[in-house]
Amino acid sequence: MSVQTVLFDAPGPKARARHRIIAVIGGLVILGLLYLIVRGLADPSNNQFTAQKWAPFLDPVTWTAYLLRGLFNTLKAAALAVVLSIVVGFALGVGRLSESTILRGVCGALVEFLRSVPVLVMMLFVYYFCIYVLGVLGDISTFIGVVGGLTLYNSAVIAELIRSGVHSLPRGQGEAGLALGLRPGQAMATILLPQAVTAMLPSLISQLVVILKDTALGYIISYSELIRGGQTLATNYGNLIPTLIVIAAMFILINLALSGLAKYIEARLRRSRGGGKTGTDLTARPGDDPDGSALATERITAGTAVGRNA
Amino acid sequence: MDALKTLLQNYDVLAALWMTIKLTLFSALGAVVLGTLVAICRISPVAVLRGFAITYVGIVRNTPLTLIIFFCAFGVASTLGVTLAAKDSATFIVDNNFRFGLVALSIYHASFVAEALRSGINTVPQGQAEASRAIGLGFTETLREVILPQAYRGAIAPLGSTLIALTKNPTVVATIGVAELAFTMRGMIEFNGSLLYAIFVLIAACFVILTLPTGLFFTRLSRRLVVQR
């Protein structure tokens, strides 16, 4: 980032020597930490690096029976949650921008409530709702619980993203639409929403990362997603820590890919608009982006309220 | 109503609320301390520290919190036998799980605090750093006198949103059996399925009380403290 390169001058000989000393000390500290971790893992009484613990990963059955199935369930729940929360989020967001005060108030209260409650609490509620009220038992109820909880929470976040997207557009867009004789709803649908969605696309994709990570909460209601698949595998082969490392690597790779996609789309948008603004979260509120995943993109405007009238 | 009263008598919701608040406050402290360290590493001129910070944030931010807590509690504690509480104390399991939950929450949220501080530093115009170089301030002085004060004020909004996430994430610590709100909620519903709605409203109300004022407070704080340019 440009601030970084001006924070310190091009280092002269003394500064370079100092940097080398700091680098060596820092490197030693980090290596020391790593060594402690590896030594703890390789403790002879419980060596985590034996081939016996890592060999199961070369066996295709491990993957097909446990890990890939868990991954498939995770992706299934995440995909369904994404689609549903986009639909419901759009409805809530447009409702929050409507002319009718009642609709605005109801949608606003709903969005605020859904954003204040943790995802896990809502997952638990939907899960037990399925069991006690709908009488649906078995795996399908955990699936509905996970998807329901994720949908409820993320639709509120997407509603807020849409609202801030529409607010970040110049006022003239809506006014021009009304001046042309469009009804407010038509102006919203044909003029404002498409631009808002394009502006907010990077944040929307970052929200996918959040949804994917939150499917891991399904572990707590016994949904057979990736972590639970890994746990079953680990109890079978007795290699908990290598399993957890492999699962973590899978999550990190997928999420890095999604974040990379978000950055790529944002760069494309910025280029195609000739350096114009992408979605600036002008109505961003603390709690809007609880996982900070919108910070994954290098937006400089995160955190300032200056320029609200832009 | 009687059912609700017996419910409240049998399950200590206030203690669970207090446990959630304790988890939030202590892990907030740990996250801010660790996050500031990581943020300083991130912008330091030494490439080794920068690489370490980038790797740390990249790994921790892309892993689900459930997995990190799982790793800390079951991996480190059970498999490696590392414990954070005196083995012979009566409350060993409770203390152990609580502290491991704290460690996991701090590590996870430190990465978000570091990113929030970095975005705060990005709000500072480049001219400020250039001007401080021009009058001869070194790296540490530039940071201390010019950049960090403005960066903290600019970082208040993302820091607030991280704190709110921190208030809601202790629910995940229910995985390892810490008796906070989500754990209590699950216990209550298991035995009193008929009171599902009342329980949900009660727990949701607790969270709304915790998060809504914090959100409003941080919005107002960020607006008041924003650096006028």
Describe, in plain words, how this protein is organized in 3D.
Chain A has 310 residues and is an all-alpha fold. Helix content of chain A is 72%, strand content 0%. Chain A is built from eleven helices and no strands. Chain B has helices at residues 2-10, 13-43, 47-61, 65-79, 92-122, 126-134, 139-154, 156-168, 181-191, 196-225. Chain B is mainly α and 229 residues long. Chain B is built from ten helices and no strands. The termini of chain B are far apart. In chain B, helix 2 crosses helix 5 (92-122). The longest helix of chain B has 31 residues, at 13-43. Chains A and B meet through helix 1, helix 2, helix 5, helix 6 and helix 9 of A and helix 3, helix 4, helix 5, helix 6 and helix 7 of B.
The portion of residues assigned to helices of chain A is: over 70%
Which class of secondary structure composition applies to the elements of chain B? mainly alpha
The run of helices and strands of chain A is HHHHHHHHHHH
What proportion strand of chain B? under 5%
The global form of chain B is globular
Unreliable sequence segments of chain A: 275-310
What keywords describe this structure?
heterodimer, A: mainly alpha, 11 helices, B: mainly alpha, globular
Structure, briefly:
With 310 residues, chain A is an all-alpha fold. Helices cover 72% and strands 0% of the residues of chain A.
Describe the SSE topology:
The complex is a heterodimer of chains A (310) and B (229).
Chain A lengths: L1 H6 L5 H29 L9 H4 L5 H37 L4 H16 L2 H16 L4 H30 L2 H9 L4 H31 L11 H12 L2 H33 L38
Chain B lengths: L1 H9 L2 H31 L3 H15 L3 H15 L12 H31 L3 H9 L4 H16 L1 H13 L12 H11 L4 H30 L4
